[in-house]
Fold these 2 entries.
Entry 1:
Amino acid sequence: MLIVKKFGGTSVADKERIFNVARRIEEDYRKGNDVVVVLSAMGKQTDILLEMARDINPKASKREIDMLLTTGEQTSVALMAMALNALGVPAVSLNAFQVAMHTTSEYGNSRLKRVDTERIQSELENKRVVVVTGFQGVNKMDDYTTLGRGGSDTTAVALAAALHADACEIYTDVNGVYTADPRIVKSAKKLNEITYDEMLEIASLGAGVLHNRSVEMAKKYGVQLVVRSSLNNSEGTLVKEEVKMEKMLVSGVAADANTARIAVIGLEDQPGVAFKLFHHLARHDVNVDIILQSVGRDGTKDISFTVKEDDLDEAVAILERHRQGSLKCQKIDVEKDVAKVSIVGAGMMSHAGVAAKMFEALYDVGVNIKMISTSEIRVTVLIDDIHVEKAMNAVHEKFFVS
Ligand code: ASP
Ligand code: MG
């Protein structure tokens, strides 16, 4: 069997954990499996490196930042290969250049285009465990690039797809994917299975379990994923196309506090206004989420929408720049203390009343809804962020406990 195993930063944070992981790898190897390991940087190393860069030059170029960040993963793979060797397991570490993992040209958030498999395959034929740097790639200028924060998951899925691996296991510091963040909702339960589409919605909500592009790629290439803990032997959560059981109405509740609302008030009620507004934001790569437009009255209308709180200042600056020109409006209002709470479930496609049940749960605890958006398998509401804990617990209880 060919197994790809990915371990996150906390799983390789120190010597003891590195050996703990090395022994798990050894177990698979001794059973006669081919093992490819993908690692993140140790512990908080990526944050530490970013801090060092900022300290030297707050305007450091993205190219140099990537050059720096890729050392994090290079450190962990070399140490892991040494640990495996110390246990008597033949192993070799490879970085993105050596593999090679080809990406698009931009730095900081590049996409994988192609993965060469010859070098890995020949190392596997020589009965070596291959330990590969996650998160990094090489562009057409032969420069290092990175795949965006949390990108090692995507490296693992890309390798599993390219090598036609029999299993792709993502090891982390929790036991799998939960019905809600167990730190916020005490009664949260671990899921045995979840579909790609549900996982994609949850990952995009910032739940942090899996990089959302890794789920996209797993779905595209049909790579089944197992998310499980590196600290114990529990089963974990299987991520795949269809789940065996009757589809659950709702499989998870998630919150995202990295959200802000912008209301553009008193826009002209004319064709092209929404286009201009969102075009200006899109040109600067500001992603917009929930959008609400009021009914036009006296020749004017209001449009409000949410952005990531990190993008708020930029978004407002862009709007202010165009306010006297192509985008006439009376007022721009900003609200930071808001959060999104969402329910996700493939079963809601074929069942009525799921949204109503969520709204009832919020009503029961007196939480006001500011905005609503839905997809086929998701309902999201915007609320004041001080109510997130209360809202999540109420919604979770409504769907999972009763
Ligand atoms: N080390 C990188 C990060 O911290 C990539 C990863 O962990 O997946 O974002
Ligand atoms: Mg991660």
Note: Residues 8-9, 40-41, 46, 72, 134-135, 149-152 surround aspartic acid (ligand 1) (CB under 6 Å).
Entry 2:
Amino acid sequence: MKDLSTDRRRFIKQASMGTIAASIAACTPNTEVLQSELTEDPKSSPIPLVISTWPHIADNQIALLAVQEGRLLDGIEKGINNVENNPKDQSVGLGGRPDRSGIVTLDACIMDRKHRAGSVCYLKDIKNPISVARLVMEETPHVILAGDGALQFALDKGFKKENLLTDQSKSEYLEWLKTAEYKPQINVELHDTIGMLAIDERGDISGGCSTSGLGYKMQGRVGDSPIIGAGLFVDNEIGAATATGMGELVLTTLGSFLTVEFMRQGMTPTEACKAAVMRTIEKNKETYKDMQVGYIALDKFGRFGGYSIQPGFQYTVTYQDHNKVFDAQSYLPK
Ligand code: GLY
């Protein structure tokens, strides 16, 4: 475990975050912090570290290996690729649930320590949207490519088209068509998105987010996951956050950006996630009880946390040879 007591001074100097550090130090973590001291004590936070929404242990381990080798962005990309490539995962990449027309469309974004960002939305026939998003970030002057343009870009970069609708997702879709009732489901199959954040040994932070979006969404619907500030936000001087759940609620509060801004004001990651969830609830008083939104956050000291509206949201933290799945605190009781 790396002791951050000396590095903390280095971060503060390098990142010119004296006022932020002071406010974090002054912050009394006396809110409902149910996780271990590890998460709240800057001196004992273990870095490098990877955190992701939902129980994604194998994916975090893949990510951590690259991060430990100093390949922070590769870690985010490869960790998320592992979920995208899994046909049994019906919320992300290959095997994702289709829209109401039976078409699988994928959304993803990535953001790095240099404040660069890349995103694709409404991408068809390519199973690794996070990799395409990374190339948008690294090789184009743009941040977001959508639909046919995103597909053409991916093909130009050598990605191969494939049918993303697996037999399992197709048969569930055909079953759904019998009633075609559209109702958001809370904590669908334990997750609906992979959001992943990582901090390396230097204290640099990056993140990514990938999803097939809401199952049986309207054709053309894009959620929060490819939108910088909504599904993901990274500010390397402060920290990062990513979202899961009902994208429409995350979009209208720019929840990941908001979470990072709360950390900028001195909140711990858990406090910041909770404050962002409370904003969502305040703005959606009529509907929030039937919806799930969850955030995870990671700060510059390697502290982490999560919070959600509904119980049942979990997140996974991986460092050294440890994998820990946390039950996030929630606004509504179990
Ligand atoms: N959070 C994923 C979505 O709403 O598309």
Note: The pocket of glycine is lined by residues 192-193, 211, 213-214, 223-225, 244-247 (CB under 6 Å).
